[in-house]
Specification:
189 residues, 4-stranded mixed sheet, two-stranded antiparallel sheet, 18% strand, binds iron/sulfur cluster
């Protein structure tokens, strides 16, 4: 979780007025926060979190006021996908030490500990609702993560710079354009 809420709004759209966090506190436990005025490690409940919610709600840090998971922003994510109900938390991830372009800016669908989202089909529903834009989507079970979007053949072509077959040319070109800032300059530029 970073403080770049403008980029999150650009990628996901504004916060939806009809969705609220209710009793969910998944982000207060699961996510790493690294901002100038507040930080916490991943997978660790915030020290301010109580069974009744945030103990400093009225004066909570800026990041807590301005950051929202994708469920709060993306209407296509099912209503039942609220993180405390679905066992999934979806967020924009920015990685300055990305191993490849698709890690640099992406959506990450993270299965929370004990989640039954794969068995219940919720993970598939959530992924279906997210994999329709030129934004990379990863699925993580906490131990491993897999690139779900774009598909592997497209991803390999985008990353390798190899000439694509005609059937994939437009799709590969669109991804290269979208992730241009994170790809090495090549002849196709
Ligand atoms: S994970 Fe999402 S729904 Fe849950 S508390 Fe955080 S922003 Fe709200
Ligand atoms: S300060 Fe409050 S809102 Fe922010 S992470 Fe901690 S418990 Fe959650």
């Amino acid at each position: 979780m970073t403080g770049d809420t403008d980029l999150e709004t650009l990628l996901l759209g504004p916060v939806l007025p009809e969705r609220d966090c209710g009793g969910c506190t998944a982000c207060c436990v699961t996510l790493k926060v690294d901002t100038p005025d507040f930080a916490k490690p991943a997978s660790t409940p915030c020290a301010k979190l109580t069974p009744a919610g945030c103990s400093i709600h009225a004066v909570r840090p800026t990041i807590c006021r301005t950051w929202f998971c994708a469920w709060r922003r993306v209407a296509a994510l099912p209503e039942e996908a609220r993180p405390d109900r679905s066992g999934l938390i979806v967020s924009v991830s920015f990685n300055q030490e990305a191993r490849n372009a698709f890690e640099a800016i992406a959506l990450t669908v993270l299965a929370l500990p004990g989640s039954d989202a794969i068995a219940s089909g919720m993970a598939a529903r959530a992924l279906d609702s997210l994999c329709d834009q030129l934004v990379a989507v990863w699925f993580s079970d906490g131990a491993r993560k897999m690139l779900m979007h774009p598909e592997n053949d497209v991803a390999e072509l985008v990353l390798s710079g190899a000439p694509p077959p005609a059937a994939l040319a437009d799709e590969v070109a669109a991804w290269r354009e979208r992730y241009r800032a994170f790809l090495p300059a090549r002849d196709y530029d």
